[in-house]
Design brief:
The protein has 9 helices and 14 strands. A 5-stranded mixed β-sheet has the order 2-1-5-3-4. The protein is globular, with a radius of gyration of 23 Å. The two termini are 44 Å apart.
């Protein structure tokens, strides 16, 4: 059967709209390939394609067909409305030096800036002024003497503009901006990202779930971060912060999530997602975020060591991070290699979850993800070590950065 063509729109973090023509049988990865060509980059390592389905956003599994996520009217070519996908940051990293590509970092900066404009960390009001100064330097360069050379709405959350007014902001912000005179745009953007991540509602992706099976409206917010999960019960105001080591397991069956972690009543919390598709995608996002956290820990430590020894070194663009070939065991592997392998592992196992019990007849599946963070990671297969050495020349392989795919196979996945 011929792969019929369809149109869709991809919105970038800087609000640019790209119109793409795709095949009816195309997958998420095919859209990524077109974005690589249109954007002139092959590094969208930390990004994913997001779509609003059933009034809730979710990230596409790039290995699945687009038709799984898009409306029937798009498949039948009868849609009168524009079909939209969004390129969004899916995996947040604590150290911006891991973002090597200049263009990718600009997209990353654009998304983080948008999140800051929507942020509501009222107790950190002063930080928003410093962030605005970094953003002004990144966007406009050195401070101009013109009184109204920027619009406060483009650099501050609405609640700050409403509280202080335009005149106050235009009077006091330029002094902070002038202190950054001579700083490059890329350095200012990097500092903006790094400081913005200290706002608790910026570096996380929020999913809406319910505590009751029959409720369709979510009343529990689950935030996926690079370091764990943040869970907020809207009705009673309870807030839980679970770093990865505190989570014992996450069991997923159909729409049901069973989270077992320290600090919970009876050490478990049962939640329900809107649909099985939403549940599967949430679980995949949680697993990938945890694996990425484990994988980049050695890299972050090495970057801290490098910055400690070479204080004059500050990463301003992608070229600064191209380490020369040497016998130094402090060289870092390419970040794209790590995340690509994580995504391949997940894509290879998502569709092969074991069907158990009575669920075998109706397609229900049960998977338990045990989250345990040991002090040491081991690789069973020596071929994995050889592959790392070949791809990451000069890297000290004291503890491997990736676990073999076989480690994740089966009904129970032990993250270690």
């Amino acid at each position: 059967m011929k792969n019929q063509s369809r149109c869709l729109c991809v919105i970038l973090p800087n609000n640019t709209e790209l119109s793409l023509t795709v095949g009816l049988k195309d997958r998420g990865q095919d859209v990524f390939e077109q974005l690589f060509e249109r954007l002139g980059t092959s590094d969208l390592t930390f990004f994913g394609l997001s779509v609003v389905k059933d009034s809730q956003p979710l990230f596409l599994d790039l290995g699945h067909k687009l038709s799984l996520y898009l409306p029937k009217s798009w498949r039948k070519n009868t849609s009168k409305e524009k079909v939209i996908l969004s390129l969004k940051v899916q995996y947040f990293v604590e150290n911006v030096q891991l973002i090597l590509n200049r263009d990718t970092r600009q997209l990353y900066y654009a998304e983080v800036k948008g999140r800051v404009l929507r942020s509501e960390c009222f107790e950190q009001e002063g930080l928003y002024f410093q962030l605005a100064a970094y953003a002004l330097q990144a966007d406009l360069g050195d401070c101009e003497e013109n009184f109204a050379y920027f619009s406060p709405q483009g650099f501050f959350p609405f609640w700050i503009v409403q509280k202080h007014g335009n005149d106050y902001i235009l009077k006091h912000t330029p002094a902070l901006h002038r202190e950054l005179k001579g700083m490059s745009s890329s350095e200012a953007a990097s500092l903006f990202i790094q400081e913005a991540f200290t706002l608790s509602d910026v570096p996380l992706t929020i999913y809406r779930l319910s505590k009751e099976k029959k409720k369709t409206q979510g009343c529990v917010l689950v935030g996926v971060t690079s370091t764990g999960l943040q869970i907020s019960e809207v009705l009673n105001g309870k807030v839980y912060d679970f770093p990865w080591p505190s989570i014992h397991s996450i069991t997923f069956q159909g729409r049901k999530f069973d989270i077992r972690a320290d600090g919970l009543f009876e050490k478990k919390l049962v939640l329900y997602s809107l649909s099985v598709l939403h549940a599967k995608n949430l679980l995949q996002h949680v697993r990938n975020s945890h694996r990425l956290h484990l994988n980049i820990k050695p890299l972050v430590m090495k970057l801290k060591e490098k910055n400690g020894r070479h204080r004059e070194m500050y990463i301003t663009d992608g070229a600064d991070l191209v380490f020369e070939d040497s016998d130094d065991d402090d060289e870092l592997p390419p970040m794209k290699f790590l995340v690509d392998n994580i995504q391949k592992q997940t894509t290879g196992t998502t569709e092969s979850k074991t069907v158990t019990g009575s669920g075998a007849s109706n397609g229900a599946c049960c998977l338990e993800m045990s989250v345990d963070e040991p002090e040491e990671m081991l690789v069973d297969d020596p071929e994995d070590v050889l592959r790392l050495i070949e791809l990451v020349e000069g890297v000290s392989v004291d503890g491997p950065l990736l676990l073999p795919i076989s480690h994740w196979e089966g009904e129970t996945n032990q993250i270690s």
